[in-house]
Structure formats: C-alpha cells, structure tokens
Amino acid sequence: MSYEKAYKISLIFFLMIILVAVFVTPQVEGYGDSVASVAILALSAHWIIHNVIAFKFGQIDIKGFMVNRTKNPKSFGLILFSKGLFSTLFIYLVLR
C-alpha cells in the first residue's frame, strides 16, 4: 500500500465518523457542541494516524510539499512532533 492510499483511507474513515455524528445526533438545540466535539476528536485522531503513516513510509505531505525523512530528518521530526503535540492538545481540550 502506498503512502497516498493509506492517507486517503484514513481520511475517508474519519470523515465517515464525522458524517455519522452529524446524522445520528438529534437535531435539537444544544447538541451542536457534541457534533463539533466529535469532529475535532476525529480530526485529531486523523492527525495522529497520519503521523504513524508518515513514520512508516518515511515521508509526510504538508500542503503539497513532500518532506522525506532521509533528506530532511530535522524537518521531518519537527513536523511529526508539532502535529502530534497539537492533536494531543486538541484531544485534551475537548475531553476535559
């Protein structure tokens, strides 16, 4: 499986979670926060899975720029660390 295929499968999976939350959540006043929470948690989980995929394949795509672990190890590590930090922070802020 290629990097792009693994990334697209992960993205589609987490988008499906968000869509299920949108359609399953009652359309009543006050439930909008739960849909937003599910969306942020799904997006944060996607970022963590994206880090795992990037680490496995040794490359990460950020806004159309491919960063390889062999060519730019410091940039690669910084990107993985920052995405992991922000996704963990978002998960913490939603769940607290």
What does this structure look like?
With 96 residues, the chain is mainly α. Helix content is 74%, strand content 8%. It is built from 3 helices and 2 strands; from the N terminus they run ααββα. The protein has helices at 3-24, 32-57, 73-95; strands at residues 59-62, 65-68. Helix 1 (3-24) runs antiparallel to helix 2 (32-57) and helix 2 (32-57) runs antiparallel to helix 3. The longest helix is centred in the middle third of the chain and has 26 residues, at 32-57.
Question: What labels would you give this structure?
Answer:
single chain; 96 residues; two-stranded antiparallel ribbon
Summarize the model shown.
It contains 3 helices and 2 strands; from the N terminus they run ααββα.
What summary fits the major beta sheet?
2 strands, antiparallel
Question: Helices and strands, in N-to-C order?
Answer: HHEEH
The number of distinct β-strands equals 2
The 3D shape can be described as elongated
Please state how the strands of the largest beta sheet are arranged side by side. Answer: 1-2
The count of helical stretches stands at 3
What's the structural blueprint in terms of helices and strands?
Blueprint (H helix, E strand, L loop, with lengths): L2 H22 L7 H26 L1 E4 L2 E4 L4 H23 L1
Antiparallel strand pairs: 1-2
Helix pairs in contact: 1-2, 2-3
